[in-house]
UniProtKB/TrEMBL annotation:
Keyword annotations from UniProtKB, A to Z: Glycoprotein, Repeat, Secreted, Signal
InterPro entries hit by this protein: ECM_Regulatory_Proteins, FN3_dom, FN3_sf, Ig-like_fold
Cellular component, GO annotation: extracellular region
Descriptive protein name: VWA1 protein
Subcellular location as annotated: Secreted, Extracellular space
Gene3D superfamilies: Immunoglobulins
Domain Fibronectin type-III: 1-89, 91-179
PANTHER family in the record: FIBRONECTIN TYPE-III DOMAIN-CONTAINING PROTEIN (PTHR46708:SF2), TENASCIN (PTHR46708)
Length: 183
């Protein structure tokens, strides 16, 4: 029976029983998002093959798949299945500011995902247009922002740069404490 394994947000592997051989025919594989015949794709698969990875799919989408054995020796009915890709994981979902001092604060974010190559932390005083940029490795989930002005509100934007090239940003406001008088 035709079924899917290794389902991710953008791909899955189809596996089916060996019905044909290299000499007895080939398979026509039709697939596409359910209910949208215009978006269907068709592939020809050699008869000796019994699995195939479909990639570059949309996240969180149900695909209808039909495997049609094309043989001039035997008739095999088409096999059908439906596969739903996983929803795309996104980061950052939250940005936290902590350990505020007059000249620094800690920025942390969650979740940390394998699909993120790096983070960019952009920060600047409000109002104003003098933002600075920090690059942070994708395996880290926090950084210390330093050399700030006391008693100032900053806009902090954390951008996840995915390995796929996509980007996702989230912003938070941070306030530094009053100056070092009397400390």
């Amino acid at each position: 029976r035709l079924h899917a394994t290794d389902v991710t947000s953008s791909s899955f592997r189809l596996v089916w029983p060996q019905l044909l051989s290299q000499d007895s025919g080939f398979y026509s594989l039709e697939y596409g998002p359910g209910g949208d015949p215009a978006a269907r794709s068709t592939l020809q698969v050699p008869g000796a093959q019994s699995s195939l990875v479909l990639s570059q799919l949309a996240p969180g989408t149900t695909y209808e798949v039909a495997l049609i054995p094309e043989s001039n020796v035997h008739y095999f009915p088409p096999q059908r299945t439906r596969v739903t890709t996983l929803p795309e994981e996104i980061s950052p979902v939250q940005v936290l500011i902590s350990d505020s001092g007059p000249r620094s604060f800690q920025v942390s974010w969650a979740p940390v995902l394998d699909s993120v190559a790096s983070y960019q932390v952009l920060y600047g005083p409000l109002p104003g247009n003098s933002a600075k940029l920090l690059q942070v490795d994708g395996s880290h989930n926090s950084t210390l922002v330093q050399h700030l002005a006391p008693n100032t509100t900053y806009l902090v934007t954390v951008t996840a740069i995915y390995r796929s090239g996509k980007e996702k940003s989230l912003s938070a406001k941070a306030c530094t404490l009053e100056g070092e008088r009397g400390q």
